[in-house]
Amino acid sequence: MTPLQQEQFHQADQLLDQQHYHEAAQRFADLYEEVDEFAVNRQLVRALYEDQQYAEAAFYAVEHLNDYVTSKELMQLLINVELHAQAFIDVRVQLNALPKWHDKFISQVERAENEFAARYQTTLNSQLKQFYHLGDGSFAEQQRRFRAASHLPLKQYLIGAKFLVRDPFVNPLIRSSLMQMLQRLHLTGKIMIYWLDEREHLIDLAKLSDVESIPVVSQVEKMIKRDFSQQDPLSYQMFNQEFHLQLAYLYPLVELAIPDAGAWYQALTAYSKSTDQDQDVVLAKRWQNQIARLAQQLGMH
To answer: How far apart are CA 207 and CA 113, in angstroms?
Structure first.
């Protein structure tokens, strides 16, 4: 910070100490536009929290998430902000990434969820109904409802999610995103999902892993990197993006579609050049074409 910015920080800090929270928040927000430093972010979040602008406070806090998880005190501020913003699902995901403080804070989350469910029954029913009928809307509307559902307590979120991952009218990308969220929530139990092959599959939630931990994913990534990262960076970027879009559609049954990393890699990068394709490559290309069609319908291709 420049001397002038340090002076502005000091003045805003004094306003915060004097409990002029609204004015302090405005000053810190102006300074934060110039200086993206955690010291400014932290005081801005504190001021917004005290001014009861909880959604705004949560929005800024997430920008420096890695800084808030460095101490128990800062983590407590983050938890307070997010619980007041009713960001219940986000808090749980963040806590699952922090095993050492998980038990200390999870009881606070559960208490806040129970209080919300008891006090705001009508709001909760309305939110759950919106989530439940997610498949009725356009893709943009489905995305909006998916994001809004992170404000549901876990119990209600699960009721909706278990129903939606079986709903053929929910976009496959949203169904996949729901499954990835269930994985991050570290849940147990078995659920049925409707997948790209237009069949239902039984999934053991406890055995789910994140996309990057699936062996076949890193195998394909290594092949793309090996052949393109140095020689042809543009193609490297293109194939990498294409592969990650495919994974977004295929999760959680990535290995069912990609039993052979080499065949998937060949179908992705060199299909038109190869002449005598074996069956695995042809099958991989069929999957990739199906995903490309789905992505094209959304204007993502």
So the answer is: 26
